Amino acid sequence: MLRMAVAAFLLSLACAAPVLAADEGPAPAPLVQPLPSAPPSPAEETPGFQAVRPLPGAEVPAPVAAPVTVPVTPPAPAPAAPVMAPPPPPVATPATESGLLPLLAQSGVAALMIALGALVAGLVGIATANAGRRRDEANRRKSAAATLVIELEARIQAFEAVPVPPNAEAGVSFVSAVVALADLDYGWRAVQGALYLLPERLAGHLAVHYAAVHHVAKFIKGQSFAAGLRMLQANRIGGHPCPDAGTMREAHVELAAAFRGLDKIVMGLKSTS
Q1: Are 245 and 152 in contact (CB under 8 A)?
Q2: pLDDT tens figures, 29-38
Q3: What are the structural domain ranges in the chain?
Q4: Which residue of 9, 72, 193, 265 has the fewest C-beta atoms within 10 A of its own C-beta?
């Protein structure tokens, strides 16, 4: 029974094999194609072989010309840039005496010109400084002279207003006028630093005038103080402590002597300014 079943199964497979092969289609071509076989090498001619001659009248094929090979000329190389040779080092030539003397002469002339220029510049600078100093001194001299002229004219007018003793009523006025006249010396004090710019004779007369007026003023003040002490000792009440008439007369004479010739000093100062 089992054998019959196996035989029936094998028979069915044999019948179904062509159908399965038809359904599957042709087999696919192989991916790698086989290389063509090399042509067989011509056999060597045998010694007794006789070639077949062509028939008369048959066309002989024209010989094929061999290809002409054109020689390819390589391109010419580009010309190389010329290489500049380095310049030869300068040859140190020893200085000769003929070339050294002109060089020394030029150096000496240059040094002389520099010294001469420095000397001229120094002289010009000194001259300019002296001119500036003289101009400044002239301005200071004019200023001092103008100041003294104004003050001396005021002092002359003040001296003319001093009362003349022995006027009993003018005693106190005389003392006050002389003291005020002595204090009228602000211009003289201001120009003390410029007195050397004035002529020596003129500056000497001015110094004597101011000193004489100050001396008279001090004398009058001292006499007035002494008169006040005498009044206190005498227990005298009232009145004014003033010097006596003789003392005031002497003081007025000395004061007039101090102002004598002052107008000439003023004229000299005006000519200076």
Answers
A1: no
A2: 554 455 555 4
A3: 115-272
A4: 72
Is 146:191 a contact under the CB 8 Å cutoff? no
Angle subtended at Cα 146 by Cα 142 and Cα 152, rounded to the nearest 5 degrees: 140
Residue-level pLDDT at 23: 47
DSSP, residue by residue, 132-176: HHHHHHHHHHHHHHHHHHHHHHHHHHHHHTSPPSS-GGGHHHHHH
Cβ neighbour number for residue 213 with a 10 Å cutoff? 22
Structure tokens at 5: 């079943």
Structure tokens of 172?
């106190």
What Rg, from alpha-carbon coordinates, does the chain have? 75
- What is the DSSP code string of 56-69? TTPPPPPPPPPPPP
Q: Of residues 118 and 42, which shows the higher confidence score?
A: 118
The one-letter amino acid at 86 = P
First to last CA, the chain: 178
pLDDT at residue 177, rounded to an integer: 87
Q: Which amino acid is at 267?
A: M
Ramachandran bin of 57, using left for φ above 0, alpha for ψ from -120 to 50, beta for the remaining angles = left
